[in-house]
Write a structure and sequence with these properties.
By secondary structure, this protein is an alpha/beta fold. 36% of the residues lie in helices and 10% in strands. The protein has helices spanning 13-20, 45-60, 88-103, 119-134, 165-174, 225-248; strands at residues 6-7, 25-30, 63-65, 109-114, 137-140, 186-187, 218-219.
């Protein structure tokens, strides 16, 4: 299928060279390949979503998509078997080095297609430093604000943010074969929600603050593929808008 975007790993170096010199927008997907998502979604859910969104973006916008960063800063999930986590310094350095290594070949515009929440502040610091020190334009997506979260009336759960109605619906729409639907759970750990105050939280298997026996925050039992299709379209629409802005934004 013809598409305006390309995937760097599918090119040879001599095919990549003229594209990299043409002031392209580089997309760097970030999605965990090993992070708990309850008993009903696979550990690789974030990577699956990141690569799906990158592919859909490449169908509509002339971008160059890099291989996915599959490990990151995910401190909230370390108690669950199979979940991986990098320190913020290590994760930030990894992304910084990837961007700079590609930047040596010409590109100055980057979109970090970030599917995590805890990863966002680290990536934002990296983006600012790359702009300050290297004059690179680096945009970072906030998945919780990217299009679909604006569809508040679509969701019925009283609260949620992980392996919940929203995330499970999206995976049901894009990869239904990986969802263990009979194991979908409803669990809403008690967490303070005060305007203007951030209190770091984690998913605890043992009773206590932030206790979540399943690793779910929300109600995955309410998920449907129909809701997921609407979420998918909203996400892609917002990504296209972001990519087009970064492709044409003035630079020094």
């Amino acid at each position: 299928m013809n598409r305006p975007g390309v995937f760097l790993e599918q090119l040879t170096w001599d095919e990549a060279e003229p594209l990299l010199r043409g002031d392209p927008l580089i997309v760097l997907p970030v999605g965990a390949a090993a992070k708990e998502h309850g008993p009903h979604l696979p550990l690789g859910t974030d990577r699956l979503v990141a690569e799906h969104l990158a592919a859909r973006l490449a169908e509509r916008v002339a971008v160059i998509v890099l291989p996915t960063v599959a490990y990151g800063y995910y401190p909230a999930f370390t108690e669950f078997p199979g979940s991986t986590h990098l320190s913020p310094d290590t994760f930030g350095a990894l992304v910084r080095e990837i961007v700079l290594s590609i930047g040596r070949h010409g590109p100055r515009r980057f979109l970090v297609l970030n599917t995590g929440i805890s990863t966002t502040p680290v990536l934002e610091v990296v983006a600012r430093e790359l702009h300050r020190a290297h004059h690179l334009l680096v945009g970072v997506t906030r998945i919780e604000d990217l299009g679909a979260r604006q569809l508040a009336s679509l969701l019925s759960q009283p609260a949620g943010s992980h392996a919940d109605e929203y995330e499970t619906s999206l995976v049901l729409a894009i990869a239904p074969q990986v969802v263990r639907r009979s194991k979908a759970a409803r669990e809403i750990p008690a967490r303070p929600r005060l305007r203007g105050l951030i209190v770091p939280s984690a998913f605890r298997r043992e009773p206590g603050p932030d206790h979540s026996a399943t690793g779910v925050y929300g109600d995955a039992t309410l998920a449907t593929p129909e809701k997921g299709a609407q979420i998918d379209e909203a996400l892609v629409g917002a990504l296209v808008e972001a990519a087009e802005y970064l492709r044409t934004a003035p630079m020094d």
